Amino acid sequence: MNADPPVDWTDLTPQLVDAARRDRAWYLTIARELVGPADRLAVDVGCGAAGMALAVARMMTCGRVVAVDAHPAVLDAARDHIRAEWSDPRVRVEALRAAIPADTAALRETLGAPADLVWASAAVHHVADQQAAVTALAGLLAPGGRLALAEGGLPEHHLPWDVGLGEPGLEMRLNAAQDCWFAQMRAGLPDSRRMPYGWTEALRQAGLSPVTTRTTLDEQPPPLPDIVRRAVLEAPAGRVGRMRTTGLLTATDLDAWNRLLDPTDERWLGDRDDLFRLSARSVHLGVRP
Ligand SMILES: C[S@@+](CC[C@H](N)C(=O)[O-])C[C@H]1O[C@@H](n2cnc3c(N)ncnc32)[C@H](O)[C@@H]1O
Prior knowledge:
The chain is of the alpha/beta class. Helices cover 41% and strands 21% of the residues. The chain has a single domain, classed as Vaccinia Virus protein VP39 (Rossmann fold, 3-Layer(aba) Sandwich).
Protein backbone atom coordinates (compact mmCIF):
# COMPACT_ATOMS: atom_id res chain seq x y z
CA MET A 1 0.00 0.00 0.00
CA ASN A 2 1.37 3.38 -0.99
CA ALA A 3 1.10 5.57 2.15
CA ASP A 4 1.71 8.78 0.24
CA PRO A 5 -0.43 8.79 -2.93
CA PRO A 6 1.12 10.81 -5.78
CA VAL A 7 -2.09 12.75 -6.38
CA ASP A 8 -4.36 13.78 -3.50
CA TRP A 9 -7.83 13.87 -5.07
CA THR A 10 -9.42 15.22 -1.89
CA ASP A 11 -7.16 18.28 -2.10
CA LEU A 12 -7.89 18.65 -5.80
CA THR A 13 -11.67 18.34 -5.49
CA PRO A 14 -12.35 22.12 -5.47
CA GLN A 15 -10.38 22.41 -8.71
CA LEU A 16 -12.38 19.56 -10.24
CA VAL A 17 -15.59 21.39 -9.27
CA ASP A 18 -14.34 24.56 -10.96
CA ALA A 19 -13.26 22.57 -14.02
CA ALA A 20 -16.69 20.95 -14.37
CA ARG A 21 -18.34 24.39 -14.46
CA ARG A 22 -15.67 26.08 -16.54
CA ASP A 23 -15.64 23.35 -19.20
CA ARG A 24 -19.43 23.22 -19.52
CA ALA A 25 -19.48 24.57 -23.08
CA TRP A 26 -16.79 22.12 -24.23
CA TYR A 27 -18.61 19.19 -22.60
CA LEU A 28 -21.86 20.18 -24.32
CA THR A 29 -20.14 20.43 -27.72
CA ILE A 30 -18.56 17.01 -27.34
CA ALA A 31 -21.66 15.39 -25.81
CA ARG A 32 -23.77 16.67 -28.71
CA GLU A 33 -21.45 14.81 -31.09
CA LEU A 34 -21.16 11.63 -29.03
CA VAL A 35 -24.69 10.90 -27.85
CA GLY A 36 -26.95 9.06 -30.29
CA PRO A 37 -30.77 9.23 -30.30
CA ALA A 38 -31.09 5.59 -29.20
CA ASP A 39 -28.63 5.85 -26.29
CA ARG A 40 -30.15 4.78 -22.98
CA LEU A 41 -27.14 4.13 -20.74
CA ALA A 42 -24.03 6.28 -20.54
CA VAL A 43 -21.15 6.11 -18.07
CA ASP A 44 -18.66 8.86 -17.17
CA VAL A 45 -15.65 7.16 -15.58
CA GLY A 46 -13.25 9.18 -13.41
CA CYS A 47 -16.04 11.74 -13.52
CA GLY A 48 -14.57 14.44 -11.29
CA ALA A 49 -17.46 16.77 -10.50
CA ALA A 50 -19.64 15.08 -13.17
CA GLY A 51 -19.48 17.91 -15.72
CA MET A 52 -19.56 15.52 -18.67
CA ALA A 53 -22.15 13.22 -17.06
CA LEU A 54 -24.51 16.21 -16.90
CA ALA A 55 -23.73 17.29 -20.47
CA VAL A 56 -24.44 13.76 -21.72
CA ALA A 57 -27.69 13.67 -19.74
CA ARG A 58 -28.77 16.90 -21.46
CA MET A 59 -28.38 15.20 -24.85
CA MET A 60 -30.43 12.11 -23.93
CA THR A 61 -34.19 11.93 -24.21
CA CYS A 62 -34.54 9.16 -21.63
CA GLY A 63 -32.40 6.60 -19.81
CA ARG A 64 -29.61 6.74 -17.30
CA VAL A 65 -26.21 8.37 -16.88
CA VAL A 66 -23.86 6.97 -14.26
CA ALA A 67 -20.97 9.11 -13.02
CA VAL A 68 -18.24 6.85 -11.62
CA ASP A 69 -15.22 7.81 -9.55
CA ALA A 70 -12.81 5.98 -7.29
CA HIS A 71 -12.49 8.71 -4.67
CA PRO A 72 -15.17 9.50 -2.05
CA ALA A 73 -14.52 13.28 -1.78
CA VAL A 74 -14.71 13.64 -5.54
CA LEU A 75 -17.87 11.59 -5.65
CA ASP A 76 -19.46 13.82 -2.99
CA ALA A 77 -18.70 16.83 -5.20
CA ALA A 78 -20.20 15.00 -8.20
CA ARG A 79 -23.37 14.27 -6.20
CA ASP A 80 -23.65 17.92 -5.10
CA HIS A 81 -23.25 19.09 -8.69
CA ILE A 82 -25.83 16.61 -9.98
CA ARG A 83 -28.28 17.61 -7.23
CA ALA A 84 -27.82 21.29 -8.03
CA GLU A 85 -28.17 20.93 -11.80
CA TRP A 86 -30.40 17.98 -12.57
CA SER A 87 -34.11 17.48 -12.08
CA ASP A 88 -35.40 15.94 -15.34
CA PRO A 89 -36.95 12.57 -14.34
CA ARG A 90 -36.72 11.19 -17.90
CA VAL A 91 -32.96 10.80 -17.54
CA ARG A 92 -31.64 9.51 -14.24
CA VAL A 93 -28.19 10.81 -13.29
CA GLU A 94 -26.45 9.04 -10.43
CA ALA A 95 -22.99 8.80 -8.91
CA LEU A 96 -21.28 5.54 -8.06
CA ARG A 97 -17.99 4.62 -6.48
CA ALA A 98 -15.75 2.24 -8.43
CA ALA A 99 -12.06 2.05 -9.31
CA ILE A 100 -11.09 1.01 -12.82
CA PRO A 101 -10.00 -1.64 -13.62
CA ALA A 102 -10.23 -3.34 -10.18
CA ASP A 103 -14.00 -2.89 -9.72
CA THR A 104 -15.08 -3.39 -13.34
CA ALA A 105 -17.00 -6.63 -12.76
CA ALA A 106 -18.95 -5.10 -9.86
CA LEU A 107 -19.59 -1.96 -11.91
CA ARG A 108 -20.92 -4.01 -14.84
CA GLU A 109 -23.25 -5.80 -12.48
CA THR A 110 -24.49 -2.56 -10.90
CA LEU A 111 -25.09 -1.03 -14.31
CA GLY A 112 -27.27 -4.02 -15.10
CA ALA A 113 -26.96 -3.55 -18.88
CA PRO A 114 -24.21 -2.88 -21.38
CA ALA A 115 -23.52 0.79 -22.00
CA ASP A 116 -24.15 2.73 -25.19
CA LEU A 117 -21.48 5.27 -24.33
CA VAL A 118 -18.54 5.22 -21.94
CA TRP A 119 -16.61 8.46 -21.46
CA ALA A 120 -13.35 8.84 -19.54
CA SER A 121 -11.54 12.17 -19.45
CA ALA A 122 -8.06 12.55 -17.97
CA ALA A 123 -8.73 9.51 -15.76
CA VAL A 124 -7.12 6.51 -17.47
CA HIS A 125 -3.66 8.11 -17.33
CA HIS A 126 -3.88 7.86 -13.53
CA VAL A 127 -4.30 4.09 -13.65
CA ALA A 128 -1.20 1.91 -13.18
CA ASP A 129 -2.07 -0.31 -16.15
CA GLN A 130 -3.68 1.99 -18.72
CA GLN A 131 -4.28 -0.74 -21.31
CA ALA A 132 -6.04 -2.86 -18.67
CA ALA A 133 -8.24 0.15 -17.87
CA VAL A 134 -9.08 0.79 -21.54
CA THR A 135 -9.88 -2.90 -22.06
CA ALA A 136 -12.04 -2.89 -18.92
CA LEU A 137 -13.97 0.16 -20.13
CA ALA A 138 -14.45 -1.39 -23.57
CA GLY A 139 -15.89 -4.43 -21.79
CA LEU A 140 -18.74 -2.28 -20.44
CA LEU A 141 -20.03 -1.57 -23.95
CA ALA A 142 -22.97 -2.99 -25.85
CA PRO A 143 -22.34 -3.98 -29.49
CA GLY A 144 -22.24 -0.67 -31.36
CA GLY A 145 -21.44 1.13 -28.09
CA ARG A 146 -18.69 3.77 -28.04
CA LEU A 147 -15.77 4.34 -25.73
CA ALA A 148 -14.52 7.94 -25.78
CA LEU A 149 -11.21 8.78 -24.13
CA ALA A 150 -10.31 12.44 -23.63
CA GLU A 151 -6.55 12.09 -23.30
CA GLY A 152 -3.47 13.68 -24.78
CA GLY A 153 -3.85 16.85 -26.80
CA LEU A 154 -1.52 19.77 -26.12
CA PRO A 155 -0.52 21.36 -22.80
CA GLU A 156 -2.33 24.53 -21.79
CA HIS A 157 -0.67 27.91 -22.20
CA HIS A 158 -1.69 30.95 -20.22
CA LEU A 159 1.21 33.41 -20.12
CA PRO A 160 3.16 35.47 -22.63
CA TRP A 161 6.52 33.92 -23.52
CA ASP A 162 8.33 36.72 -21.67
CA VAL A 163 6.61 37.75 -18.45
CA GLY A 164 9.42 40.13 -17.53
CA LEU A 165 10.70 38.08 -14.60
CA GLY A 166 13.45 35.48 -14.80
CA GLU A 167 14.26 34.03 -18.21
CA PRO A 168 11.68 33.98 -21.05
CA GLY A 169 9.96 30.66 -21.66
CA LEU A 170 9.01 30.18 -18.00
CA GLU A 171 5.72 28.42 -18.71
CA MET A 172 7.21 26.09 -21.33
CA ARG A 173 9.86 24.98 -18.84
CA LEU A 174 7.15 24.44 -16.24
CA ASN A 175 5.22 22.27 -18.68
CA ALA A 176 8.39 20.30 -19.44
CA ALA A 177 9.02 19.83 -15.70
CA GLN A 178 5.40 18.75 -15.26
CA ASP A 179 5.96 16.14 -17.95
CA CYS A 180 8.96 14.75 -16.02
CA TRP A 181 6.93 14.81 -12.79
CA PHE A 182 4.12 12.96 -14.57
CA ALA A 183 6.49 10.24 -15.80
CA GLN A 184 7.89 9.86 -12.27
CA MET A 185 4.38 9.83 -10.80
CA ARG A 186 3.35 7.06 -13.20
CA ALA A 187 6.52 5.06 -12.56
CA GLY A 188 5.80 5.32 -8.81
CA LEU A 189 2.26 3.89 -9.03
CA PRO A 190 2.14 0.40 -7.53
CA ASP A 191 2.37 -2.17 -10.37
CA SER A 192 2.82 0.61 -12.89
CA ARG A 193 3.06 -0.53 -16.53
CA ARG A 194 4.18 1.56 -19.43
CA MET A 195 1.94 1.84 -22.45
CA PRO A 196 4.43 2.52 -25.24
CA TYR A 197 1.84 3.42 -27.87
CA GLY A 198 -0.94 5.92 -28.39
CA TRP A 199 -4.56 6.00 -27.24
CA THR A 200 -5.90 4.96 -30.65
CA GLU A 201 -3.78 1.80 -30.51
CA ALA A 202 -4.98 1.16 -26.94
CA LEU A 203 -8.58 1.31 -28.19
CA ARG A 204 -7.73 -1.11 -31.03
CA GLN A 205 -6.04 -3.52 -28.62
CA ALA A 206 -9.25 -3.40 -26.56
CA GLY A 207 -11.04 -4.85 -29.61
CA LEU A 208 -12.71 -1.63 -30.78
CA SER A 209 -13.11 -0.68 -34.42
CA PRO A 210 -13.27 1.76 -36.09
CA VAL A 211 -11.13 4.08 -34.01
CA THR A 212 -11.04 7.83 -34.69
CA THR A 213 -9.71 10.98 -33.05
CA ARG A 214 -11.12 14.48 -32.96
CA THR A 215 -9.14 17.38 -31.52
CA THR A 216 -10.66 20.72 -30.62
CA LEU A 217 -8.87 23.99 -30.04
CA ASP A 218 -9.64 25.53 -26.67
CA GLU A 219 -8.96 29.22 -26.94
CA GLN A 220 -9.92 31.95 -24.53
CA PRO A 221 -8.29 35.27 -25.26
CA PRO A 222 -8.05 38.06 -22.68
CA PRO A 223 -9.92 39.41 -20.82
CA LEU A 224 -10.75 36.11 -19.12
CA PRO A 225 -13.99 35.51 -17.23
CA ASP A 226 -13.41 35.13 -13.47
CA ILE A 227 -13.81 31.34 -13.34
CA VAL A 228 -11.21 30.87 -16.10
CA ARG A 229 -8.91 33.47 -14.57
CA ARG A 230 -9.00 31.59 -11.25
CA ALA A 231 -8.09 28.34 -13.00
CA VAL A 232 -5.30 30.04 -14.91
CA LEU A 233 -3.81 31.19 -11.60
CA GLU A 234 -4.37 27.85 -9.88
CA ALA A 235 -2.89 25.69 -12.64
CA PRO A 236 0.72 26.95 -12.30
CA ALA A 237 0.35 27.22 -8.51
CA GLY A 238 -0.40 23.49 -8.29
CA ARG A 239 2.41 22.59 -10.64
CA VAL A 240 5.00 24.85 -9.03
CA GLY A 241 3.97 23.49 -5.60
CA ARG A 242 4.79 19.99 -6.84
CA MET A 243 8.13 21.10 -8.27
CA ARG A 244 9.47 22.73 -5.11
CA THR A 245 11.00 19.54 -3.80
CA THR A 246 11.65 17.68 -7.04
CA GLY A 247 14.60 19.64 -8.42
CA LEU A 248 12.85 19.69 -11.79
CA LEU A 249 12.84 23.51 -11.93
CA THR A 250 15.88 25.75 -11.52
CA ALA A 251 16.12 28.06 -8.49
CA THR A 252 15.82 31.05 -10.85
CA ASP A 253 12.56 29.73 -12.29
CA LEU A 254 11.21 28.90 -8.82
CA ASP A 255 12.04 32.44 -7.62
CA ALA A 256 10.21 33.92 -10.60
CA TRP A 257 7.16 31.70 -10.01
CA ASN A 258 7.15 32.51 -6.28
CA ARG A 259 6.79 36.20 -7.13
CA LEU A 260 4.28 35.69 -9.93
CA LEU A 261 2.07 33.58 -7.66
CA ASP A 262 2.27 35.84 -4.60
CA PRO A 263 -0.80 38.14 -4.41
CA THR A 264 1.22 40.61 -2.28
CA ASP A 265 3.98 40.92 -4.90
CA GLU A 266 3.84 43.77 -7.41
CA ARG A 267 4.41 41.20 -10.21
CA TRP A 268 1.47 38.99 -9.17
CA LEU A 269 -0.06 37.24 -12.19
CA GLY A 270 -3.52 38.14 -10.94
CA ASP A 271 -2.86 41.79 -11.81
CA ARG A 272 -2.07 41.06 -15.47
CA ASP A 273 -4.54 41.73 -18.24
CA ASP A 274 -2.78 39.55 -20.82
CA LEU A 275 -3.52 36.07 -19.41
CA PHE A 276 -5.18 33.70 -21.84
CA ARG A 277 -6.05 30.04 -22.19
CA LEU A 278 -4.92 28.06 -25.20
CA SER A 279 -4.87 24.31 -25.54
CA ALA A 280 -5.96 21.47 -27.79
CA ARG A 281 -8.04 18.61 -26.44
CA SER A 282 -8.24 15.23 -28.12
CA VAL A 283 -11.07 12.74 -27.86
CA HIS A 284 -10.26 9.23 -29.12
CA LEU A 285 -13.30 7.16 -30.00
CA GLY A 286 -13.60 3.40 -30.47
CA VAL A 287 -16.71 1.43 -31.37
CA ARG A 288 -17.49 -2.06 -30.12
CA PRO A 289 -18.19 -4.23 -33.20
C1 LIG B 1 -7.85 14.65 -13.67
S1 LIG B 1 -9.34 14.14 -12.93
C2 LIG B 1 -10.45 14.29 -14.32
C3 LIG B 1 -11.86 14.57 -13.87
C4 LIG B 1 -12.84 14.79 -15.03
N1 LIG B 1 -13.02 13.58 -15.80
C5 LIG B 1 -12.35 15.91 -15.90
O1 LIG B 1 -11.94 15.66 -17.04
O2 LIG B 1 -12.36 17.07 -15.43
C6 LIG B 1 -9.17 12.37 -12.79
C7 LIG B 1 -10.35 11.73 -12.09
O3 LIG B 1 -10.19 10.32 -12.16
C8 LIG B 1 -10.49 9.75 -10.89
N2 LIG B 1 -9.76 8.49 -10.82
C9 LIG B 1 -8.43 8.30 -10.67
N3 LIG B 1 -8.13 7.00 -10.73
C10 LIG B 1 -9.30 6.35 -10.93
C11 LIG B 1 -9.66 4.97 -11.09
N4 LIG B 1 -8.73 4.01 -11.02
N5 LIG B 1 -10.96 4.65 -11.30
C12 LIG B 1 -11.91 5.63 -11.35
N6 LIG B 1 -11.63 6.93 -11.20
C13 LIG B 1 -10.35 7.29 -11.00
C14 LIG B 1 -10.05 10.82 -9.89
O4 LIG B 1 -10.69 10.68 -8.64
C15 LIG B 1 -10.45 12.09 -10.62
O5 LIG B 1 -11.78 12.45 -10.32
